[in-house]
Structure formats: structure tokens, C-alpha cells
Amino acid sequence: MAVSKRNQNKRSNILVITEALLIAYMGYISHFILTQVGLSASVSVEKLIINVGMLTVSILLCSLSVGLYEAKLRETFRGIIRRIFVSVGLSYFLVEVLTRALFNELVMDSYFLPASVCLIIITLVVFRYFTNRLGLLGLGKVRILVIGAGERASIIEKRMRRDVDRIGFELVGFVPIPGDNRENGIRKEKIIHLMVDGNFQKFISDNDIEEIVIACDQRRGTLPVEALFECRLRGIEVTELLDFMERETGQIVVNLMYPSWVIYSNGFQSQNYLRDALDYTFNCVLALIIFLLVWPIMLFTAFIIYCDDGRRTGVSVFYKQERVGLNGKLFKIIKFRSMKPDAEKNGAKWASKNDDRVTRIGHIMRKYRIDELPQLLNVFKGEMAFIGPRPERPQFVEQLVREVPYYNQRHNVKPGLAGWAQLNYPYGASVEDSMEKLKFDLYYVKHQSLLLDILILIRTVEVVLFGKGR
């Protein structure tokens, strides 16, 4: 454990030094750019060094105070961004007050601090993204031991097989305990046969375990409560399997959920009242901006659909269909028609990736999401948002509510043009696919925030531009 502590301190020191150099360099670059564009006058080297030094030290101290240099920081990337904003914003205030109140002769041009702060925030966010995402400096990568080797534990083996799925952690092994369903359990991962007694603490210490994941099939009478309690007192994280999967995969494992987990979780209702209050305004403004950019594409698409088969069949270029919206309320979704007029002559069917009901022009529209553009009208009407679970048809919802647990919870938010599930899972063509998509939809409902919305929008733009439509 002492070796692990030294390694953690070494990584933290490297992180502090690297970020100090980045902050100082961005301060210098800001002044250089401002002087080149004529917004600031040149100052002496000594004055610039002192200002950059004060800003660097202040940001490092504030970052330290908000826990950005903790060796065992287990925070989502959005949480890290929030901490960066807080530390840099507080530093801006401190440096501004300090220089103007005590060292007025050191005050730089009024553009220097705002420009420096903006560049520093962008630089630190990008740097932290790559250090955490790629496991650089060993940051965000912890050694994990899983208690359980049965059916519940096997979900880690099934869902996180690739190295890219385990960037954030190093899996030491699985410890089987009585009550595990070994027949449907771990197959290829390392099994550690360990008695959960005094030797358990020694194993944890000798192997530098930093987090224990509880994934046993039976808990009553089998869970080593005293050993886990001792581990928790020693500062080792103890995490439930559902929380671990939610954190590492961006989805909620619906088929493993149980009532007590839901009760003690954050629930599936937004607690961000400011975001909820501004939701309609934000979506309308964004819809208006998008419409002003894409109306020529919409006009051209309508003309092409009419020429393709609309003129011959007399069917509208638009397609209206009843969908289930917020709190189960029904509304009519509006899309460009991408299927043949008789597509549902035999009743409602699931959409599939290579659906033979899709027209020639429809394949192109679906690939680049052009058929979704008329839904801007649904956004203006307040029936949809830009980001949210895709709205489903009432006929399918009725079936899915009966067969998929917690399915109705996805209706706690407005349906959206783009969603977390659409980025992570292809077309849903069955109840099983709907179950998989629901795992991502519930993750969005539970974690909805402006930062997550922005992330989804950015990735959706990538999907549209490169034709990766799902």
C-alpha cells in the first residue's frame, strides 16, 4: 500500500507541474495574441511574469481546494469540468481583487485576464479529457476487485470485454462467494478463490485494491459485511454493480434493477429547476437558428420527394404519426415521408436498418437525418425538445410497458430529435432492442444536464456530417 501511495503522489505531482506549465503558457499566449491584434500594449517582461505567476499559483491553489488533484478522484468528466470552471473563476476574482486593491501598478490591460481565463479553461478541459480518456499519467485508472463471480458479475465480462471499455480501471479479478450462479457466471476472467476473513484485508493491501464492486447473486447471509466495513474505513471505495455499470458504460442495467436501488438513487426526475424553467425558450431559440440554416435543404427535400413518387401517388411529402410524449401525452410527430405510401398496409411494424419499405430518396434522408427536420415544428409547439429519448408509437409503448420493466420512466422528460440511446445503439427492431435502448434512455433521464445535452448535440452533428445515422 505504501508503494501505491508513493505512485499516486508521483502522478499527482506530475499532474500539478504539467497543468502549471499549461496555465503559465496560456497566460503568455493570451498576452501575445492581444498585442498582435492591437487590443493590448506590450508590457515589461517582469510585469508579465508576475501576473502570469499570480494567475498560475491562484488556479493551482483553487484547483487543489476543489479536489482536482486528489489521487483517488472518482468524478465524471462533467463533474471535472464543473470543478475547473469553479477553480478558474474563483482565481479570476482573486487575482483581479488582489492586483487592484494592493498592487495597482501591476494591473494589466483589461483584456488580459478574461482572455487568459478563457484559454486556460479550454486548455485544462481538453487536457483532462485526454488524460482521463486515454489513461495518461495513470489518472482515473483504479485497481478494482469484484465480489461475486455468478450471473450478475458476468455482465461486466459481457458488456466490458474490450480494452477501450476498461480505460478507467484495471480489473484484478472476481471473488466467488456462496450463492453465486456459477453455471451462468464468469467464463474467461480471472477467478480469485479467497476466503473473506483476515486474509481478505491482506489481499486488498498487497494488491493495492482501490475499489470493490459488489456483484454477488445472493446477498443475505453471504455478503462479507464486516470485511467491507473495514475496507470502507480504510478509504477503499465500495460500489454496487448497478452504480459501477452506470458510471463506466453510460447506461442503467434495467434487467438488474431492484426497488431498493431505485429508492436510494437520485431518482428519474430532474432537480435542475433553472434548466427546466428555461427549457422551452432554449429549445425554441435553437430550433429557430437551425431552421434559418436548413430551410433551403427542407424545401429541396420536399421537391425531391414530390418528384420521386409524390406526384404519381398524390401522397403528401410529409408524414404525421401519433407518438407518446411527456408524461404519456399523445402528439402528432411530423417528418418527411421516407417510406412507400403502403408501408403499413399490414399494420404497424418496427423500423429496421435495411427496411425494404423505405423509398430510394428515403435511404439518403435517413442516413443524414434529413427526414427529422420537420420535427422543428414539434419543438416550436412544445411537444418535443432537441435532446431526449426518441418518441415511440402508442401501439409499441403499450406492449413495451408490459414487457420491459421501468419503461414508463423514459416519459418523465420530453422526447427529443436526438438522444443518448441513438448515439449508442442502432435501430430498435424488437422488444429486446427496446430494452437495450432503455438502458441509455434512463441514464439520460437520471443524469440530464446542459453539459450532457451539449455533448449529445456535438456527437449528433458528427453523425449527421459523416452519415453515421442510426
UniProtKB/TrEMBL annotation:
Keyword annotations: Membrane, Transferase, Transmembrane, Transmembrane helix
Stretches assigned to the Bacterial sugar transferase domain: 281-465
Compartments where located: Membrane
Organism: Alteromonas mediterranea (strain DSM 17117 / CIP 110805 / LMG 28347 / Deep ecotype)
Pfam families assigned to the protein according to its UniProt record, in alphabetical order: Bac_transf
Keyword check for Cytoplasm: no
Transmembrane segments: 12-33, 48-68, 80-99, 111-131, 280-306
Stated family: Belongs to the bacterial sugar transferase family.
This protein's GO CC annotations: membrane
Gene3D superfamilies assigned to the protein according to its UniProt record, in alphabetical order: NAD(P)-binding Rossmann-like Domain
GO molecular function terms attached to this record: phosphotransferase activity, for other substituted phosphate groups
Protein name, per record: Sugar transferase
Highest taxon of the lineage: Bacteria
Membrane topology annotation: Multi-pass membrane protein
